[in-house]
Specification:
Helix content is about 30%, strand content about 10%. The protein has about 425 residues and is of the alpha+beta class. The protein has a domain of about 240 residues: paralog of FGE (formylglycine-generating enzyme). It has a four-stranded mixed β-sheet with strand order 10-9-8-11. Strands 1-5-12 form a three-stranded antiparallel β-sheet. A three-stranded antiparallel β-sheet has the order 3-7-6. The protein is globular, with a radius of gyration of 23 Å. The N terminus and C terminus are likely disordered.
Length: about 425
Amino acid sequence: MIRLPTHEWLTRFRARQLGDGAPTACAVVALLMGACIGSPLLVGTGIVAAAFALGRDVHRSPNRRTLPIVLPPITTAADVTHASHAVSGEQSELGILVEEMLAHGRYALLLRPQIVGNLNERQRERTHSALGDGMAIVPAGEVLLGDVHDALDDGRFTEDEVDRNRLERVTVEDFLLDRYPVTNRQFYQFVASGGYQQLSLWQPSILAAVLDFVDQTGAPGPRLWRDGHFPRGEEDFPVVGVCWHEAAAFARWVGKRLPTDAEWVKAACWPVPVATGVWQQRKFPWGNALERVRANLWGAGPGRTVPVDQYSEGISAGGIYQLVGNIWEWTMGDFGCDDLNGALLAEPGGSPVLKSLRGGAFDTYFESQATCQFRSGDHPLARKHNVGFRCALGVCDVLARGAAESGQDEHQSLDAEPQLAEVGP
C-alpha cells in the first residue's frame, strides 16, 4: 500500500467530500506520485481516473450510475495507525481526525491496540464511552443451535433432548454486539464518505455488482432511499433495502464485522447452565412466551419499521434492542439446502447460494419465525424492504480500558498490521 506524505494524506482525508473536484484531484495525485517513484501502474491509474473525471463532467446525468476510481481515505485500522504515527507532532491534526471518526461512529478502529496508545486521556475516555453506549458485551459460553423449538417448551435443555434433537453445541468467545440495528443516520455517514467508491471495502468478486447498489434515483445507497438520502424524519429507523455485501462493507468501514449465527443466537437467548447437563435457553429475548407488545411483529405494531430504540420491553438480558421484530438481520453465516451428497448447495464460483437471516420483522406473522432460534435466508444480493443488520466485534480486537490507561501497549510498534476479523468470505 502506497503511503502519502502526512500533510497530503490529511488534506485529502478532510476534503474527500469536496464534490466534483475530488476525482480530478485524486487523478492528479496519482499521476504525480507515479511519475516521482517511477510506477507505471500508478501513472496508469491516474490516467484512467482523469479520463473518468473529465468524462463525468461532460456527460453528467442525475441518474447515471458511476463508480469513481478513488484512492480511499481511511478503510482499515492500519491506515489510522499510519496517520496517527505520522502526525505525532501535529496533535491538532490528529484531534481533527479522531473527532471525525467519532462523529461517524468509527470508534472501534480507534480502540485497536495499535492505535489507542496515540490518543490522549480525553480522547480515550470519549472513545470508550462511545463503545459502551453503542455496544453490549456478551460473555463467552456455549449456545445450542439447530431445530430446538420442540425442546423449548420449558426453556430448558437436557443432555437427552440435545442428543434426540441433534442439536449443535457451539462455544462462543467474549464479543460485543451493537445495542441497536444500524440506522439510516449511521449508514448515511458511510454513503456520504464514499463507502460505495472505496473498492477495498468490497469483495473483488462483486465489484461489478456494486454499480447496481443504488437507490430509487440511481444514486449509490439503499434501495428505498432517494437522491442518496433516507426519507425525512427516519434518521433513527433501521436501514433496510441493503444486501449482505452492503452490510459487510459498512461493517468493515466502521472496524467491525457481521455477527456469526452462534453469536447472534447467544446474544438473543442468553443461555445459562443451571445444572450438570442442563441448560436454560430463552425462546424470546425476554422469556419463553410470545408477548407481541414487546416486539414489532405482524398484528401488533404499526405495519412498518419503527425507530431502533422503541420496544424497550423486549430487550435482551444483555441490554440489546429488537433482536426479535422490526427487521430481519443479516449474519455472517451461510444458509441453504444440502445436495444429495449432503454438501451445502453453492453457486458455480463456490459462493453459498444464500446468507443467513435472523430475528423476524414487522411483517412476520408466524410465532415460530419470531424466536431467537429461527433462521431464514436470502440471496446475498437481495435488497429487501424488511432486512437490515447490526455489527459485532470481538473483545480481543479492542484494547480494554484498563490496559489503555496503564499504557501496557505504548511501546507496541505502530507499523504492525492489525489482525482484523474477517466479515465474510
